[in-house]
Structures
1.
Amino acid sequence: MKKIDIACIIDDDPIFVFGTKRIMQIANFCNGFLVFHNGKEAYDSLRAIILAGEKLPDLILLDLNMPIWDGWHFLDEFTQIPIEKPVTLYIVTSSIDPEDTERAKSYEIVSNYLVKPIKMDDLKKIMAD
């Protein structure tokens, strides 16, 4: 299993963020975290990282339902930025709406769609990919 250098969590729920970071630490999943509380904040920061030529996260865990910019808005904007190194992106949401799972498939960058809460087995599958 490959350890991830930087994991990015884009989610407005502090309990989910805390729990996910804790599970990642227990699993020795990654070396560091970037956490953003809405899609706009994440987009602005990640775009600045790309433009500065700095290292992007290896993995992005994206919630769909957030204030300011939701996950869909983030995806629509983020996919317009030319990126040299591929980023693995998982949607991690409480939505079980079949329309959301189908819509997620329309984005080439989306690797998978996970329903909250994220579990240790989910992290192990991500590490194995």
2.
Amino acid sequence: MEQLSRRRGEPPPYAERVLDLVERIPPGRVMSYGDVAEYLGEGGPRQVGRVMSTWGGAVPWWRVIRADGSAAPGLEAECLARWREEGTPLRGTRADMRRARWDGGV
């Protein structure tokens, strides 16, 4: 897999694939970092997290979360507000992964 450490310029091809998928997650639905990697058939949760932290600001980043339904540290309040706005199924302050998880289908 190509190097993901560069921060300037265009994202590498793997990052583009991650970002393209994230843009397709419907409002009110979520995928875990691992779900994204599994769907793409490459990388893993950490690589997806790296892409999101480096280049994810222009896509609906709040729709990519931890497998337990929680947001990335420091982003909890903003994620919760966006989830509520979109009608994402919740369990307390976490996304209800059983009901909110998107499998990449239509």
3.
Amino acid sequence: MQIWVDADACPAVIKDILYRAAERTKIQLTLVANQSLRVPASSYIRSLRVEQGFDVADNEIVRRVAPGDLVITGDIPLAAEVLAKQGQALNPRGELYRQDTIAQKLTMRDFMDTMRSSGIHTGGPASLSQSDRKAFAAELDTILNRYQRSKPAL
């Protein structure tokens, strides 16, 4: 398992949780962005800078993700592509995207895009709360613990 982060929009507090988790579990963490990122010096943490452009980072993550990998993203279309490749996707608020609900989320996202493009102000997402951070950390721990238990002993 590797952890991939759609890092351009990922909140710093979530990145900090991921840095600690990568060190603790010794799982490779890669932050993908179209800008240079500062990451802690670690053999388990790296950043990957991609070219500027619409969905370039998302496309790179999809290209590299393998079955069982975990992707951290708030981007629903990216999450859908990760699930199609048998990866896991977790948003920064702690919601694990699921195969049985992703189509509904895509439909709602497209509907809201249509509303915004026709001039209706729909507002943006609420800022990340303390309970969102806790939910993210708890779900991440659940996923990583499940992975650690399933790994064959060396």
4.
Amino acid sequence: MILNAIIDDQVCELNVPDALLGQAEGFFDKLDSDMDGGWQMGREWVECPDRVQRCQIVADKLLTAMESENERLGVMMAGYLLARMPGLKSVQLDIQGEVQNNSFEIEERPVESSAVAVEVSPGLSKLEAMEQAGNAVTKVFKVGRGYRFSVFDAVSGDWCDSPLIATEEEAGRLRQAAFRERYESLLKGEA
């Protein structure tokens, strides 16, 4: 997978092998575990960083790896970002050291191949509604010692993380409920 890291006007293309995303999950979990206790983001202490804030923190580590020409660490940080932000196309890195100013561009793809539900037209078939609901609700993923899933909000165009859930089973149950709710609203022609 390719991630574009943008520093000022310069674009650096980072090539992250697909196999790395699965193999490095333990490393990614360790990063999440390190952030579970809170993190200093600029002048502000964030008690429990959400998914976007965690990615901003890791983006800062990516910048440090690039500045020190540590290619291996840079690929690992890029891998974390790609694993935790489905559809990530590029990251704009803030060179002033303001972690919260790191920003992300998520690629919008057609519903057939994407995790983002685009426009919904009334009268979807059950199969179409199921497919779109599946694209709008991520699988359960591990964050530190807990679990989460994300739901795409078509109104704001953002991914919303679930609260941190203690067990994978409970996260799966709540994810299924979110999927069912999205599926039923799609059948009714609601976004």
